[in-house]
Write a structure and sequence with these properties.
alpha+beta, DNA Polymerase III, Chain A, domain 2, nine-stranded antiparallel β-sheet, 27 strands, 17% helix, 42% strand
Length: 379
């Protein structure tokens, strides 16, 4: 194996392929990055039996071949190389990387012990890459991080015709985001529970091209697997990941159909006020929100400890209301909204609030909704 490749393109592709390598692999070869030089150019692959990554890029291939080396070490080396063409060759049991006056020699691992990279399922449709990345970033704000509840660490992806819905919850909050896409078949109806971290990293990494292909099989070959393909610097990027097992809770019914109190508030002003007041909030205590007479009053702290209070203008419709929320969860939801003005809709103080962006006159309402459970207020 011997090839020459652009340093920036190679470094970016290696970093992308190595990003999901396990820190503590169950087998040494799973820490490896497979380099394949051939007619297609250069293919860089990683796979840990759960998530695979495959980057294809152009290279001047002198000799075809394969080599398996430490992915993280190669990524570290590539980041440090000077801005010159990179020459890579397989010499016996070692891979030599030469760039300018820099030269590295890496020990290889047995290629024959490396697992086969799974094939992509059949393509289900395409979505604009920038829109998809933004929608995923909004949805994952509510995804769980507790590995003891693996179902809640995923994002529920629901496809109905030309609409994709993304749902995530950690039991204390719920995010829903919808966006349009171009399905392979007009009456497509598919669902998948995708690991939130893999989905977020993949969507963010595939924004170099205009579109992302989503590949998801309802049954048969590829069942239990979802694939994403897009354009990266220098070539095509492809990721597959196994879907999470288990039944995602039926959360759509949690969004109420009525609202008795509605407050519209400048988002930036509210975020800054919550940040300031939360400085005195003790761990796991709520920031109190009181809505009355066109004013939102925020309070935190109690007893002999530090206290804070701040008032923010709000357009309030309906009954006065006093409630409280985890300040970080509240900030997460507010930060995910695109619009400059947010709507906080309540049925009653003890029920969840639904936070969304307020549409300007003539604009369509935002397609992101964030439901947040209230916290008990300290007396």
């Amino acid at each position: 194996m011997k090839f020459r490749v652009d340093r920036d393109v190679f470094a970016d592709a290696v970093a992308w392929a190595a990003r999901s390598l396990p820190l503590r692999p169950s087998a040494p070869v799973l820490a490896g990055l497979l380099i394949t030089a051939g007619d297609e150019g250069l293919i860089l692959s990683t796979f840990d039996y759960e998530t695979s990554a495959r980057a294809t890029l152009a290279a001047e291939v002198s000799d075809e071949g394969k080599a398996l080396v430490s992915g993280r070490l190669l990524a570290d080396i590539c980041r440090a190389l000077p801005a010159k063409p990179v020459d890579v060759s397989l010499e016996g049991a070692r891979v030599t990387v030469t760039c300018g006056s820099s030269r590295f020699s890496l020990q290889t691992m047995p290629v024959e012990d490396y697992p086969s990279i799974p094939d992509m399922p059949a393509a289900s449709g395409v979505v604009k890459s920038a829109d998809f990345a933004h929608a995923v970033a909004q949805a994952v704000t509510a995804a769980g991080r507790d590995d003891m509840l693996p179902v809640l660490t995923g994002v529920r992806l629901e496809i109905e015709g030309d609409t994709i819905a993304l749902l995530a919850t950690d039991r204390f909050r719920l995010a829903q985001r919808e966006l349009g896409w171009t399905p392979g078949t007009p009456d497509a109806s598919l669902a998948a529970l995708v690991p939130a971290k893999v989905l977020a990293d993949t969507a963010k990494a595939l924004t170099a091209g205009e579109e992302i292909t989503i590949a998801l099989s309802a049954s048969g070959a590829g069942d239990g697997l979802i694939g994403f393909e897009g354009t990266g610097p220098g070539g095509v990027r492809r990721t597959t990941t196994r879907l999470l097992d288990g039944e995602f809770p039926k959360v759509r019914s949690l969004f109420p159909n009525e609202r008795l109190t509605l407050a519209k508030i400048d988002k930036a002003e509210l975020i800054e006020s919550v940040k300031r007041v939360a400085l005195v909030a003790e761990r796991n205590t709520a920031v109190q929100l009181a809505f009355s007479d066109g004013v939102l009053t925020l309070d935190a702290g109690s007893g002999d400890e530090a206290q804070a209070s701040e008032r923010v203008h709000a357009d309030i419709e309906g009954e006065d209301l006093v409630t409280g929320f985890n300040p970080q969860f509240l900030l997460d939801g507010l930060g995910a909204i695109d619009q400059a003005v947010v709507e906080l809709a309540f049925t009653q103080a003890s029920k969840p609030v639904v936070i969304s962006g307020a549409a300007d006159e003539g604009e369509q309402a935002g397609t992101f909704r964030y439901l947040l459970m209230p916290r008990r207020l300290l007396s």
